[in-house]
Structure formats: structure tokens, C-alpha cells
Specification:
The protein folds into two domains: 9-49; 57-114, Orthogonal Bundle (434 Repressor (Amino-terminal Domain)), CATH 1.10.260. It starts with 8 loop residues before the first helix and ends in an 8-residue tail after the last helix. The chain has helices spanning 9-22, 30-49, 57-68, 76-79, 82-89, 97-107, 111-114. By secondary structure, the chain is mostly helical. The longest helix is centred in the N-terminal third of the chain and has 20 residues, at 30-49.
């Protein structure tokens, strides 16, 4: 096993090739352990080199609505009146702390998505 940190694009490609070779390795074997180490290294490299930003709060809400097949009116328990829901989804009004907490608990939207600043429409 010749494992070393991934520091360059070339190292990254070599690590991916090695993972491909080891892909069907049985767990708890030498090859399986090597595969696990390579996957951990590649994951760390990808998180550092190719970060994915969290969606803004409205995108996160809309995504969750799509996942749960919710209509705008279904957000009333979390955001208030139908007009308030419309204002929020159309970026005319920002989310309050109470709304953020309610969306997090009720729809299980991660807090780190909901607390971000986002642009409001003029």
C-alpha cells in the first residue's frame, strides 16, 4: 500500500484510478481497508477543492417543497398568512427568526441554509 496525501490534480486522478481498481474489494480485507483510506482522502480533497455552497434560504425552501410535494399554501403554518408566504417566496420580505425556527423544525430544512443572507426584490 503506497498511500500519500492528495496535493495535486495528478494525485487526485491517480487516487480515483486506484479507487476504481479496488472498487469491488471485500470489507475488512487489506484491499478493502485500502479502498476505505483512498475514499476518505478523495472526499477530503474534493471538499477542499470543489466546495458546494449551501443554497440560499428561498432556494432551500422551494427544494424542500418540491421534495414533499407542497404547495405555497402548505407553508402557512410556518410563515403565516397566504400573503406572507407569497412575500417570502417572491423575496419581498425576509425570514424572521421565528419563521426560520419553524421551517427548521417543521420541514427539517438545515439551519445553515435558512440563516444565510439573501437578496430581496426591490
Amino acid at each position: 500500500m503506497n498511500i500519500k496525501p492528495i496535493k495535486s490534480e495528478q494525485d487526485y486522478r491517480a487516487a480515483l484510478a486506484r479507487i476504481d481498481e479496488l472498487w469491488n474489494a471485500e470489507p475488512n480485507t487489506t484491499a478493502g481497508d485500502e479502498l476505505e483510506v483512498w475514499v476518505t482522502l478523495v472526499t477530503a480533497y474534493e471538499e477542499k477543492e470543489f466546495p458546494i455552497d449551501a443554497p440560499d434560504p428561498i432556494e432551500a425552501i422551494r427544494f424542500r417543497m418540491e421534495q414533499l410535494d407542497l404547495a405555497d399554501k402548505d407553508l402557512m403554518p410556518f410563515l403565516g398568512t397566504r400573503s406572507r408566504v407569497s412575500e417570502i417566496l417572491n423575496r419581498k420580505r425576509g425570514l424572521s427568526i421565528k419563521m426560520i425556527r419553524s421551517l427548521h423544525v417543521g420541514l427539517r430544512i438545515p439551519l445553515h441554509c435558512l440563516i444565510q443572507d439573501y437578496p430581496l426584490a426591490d
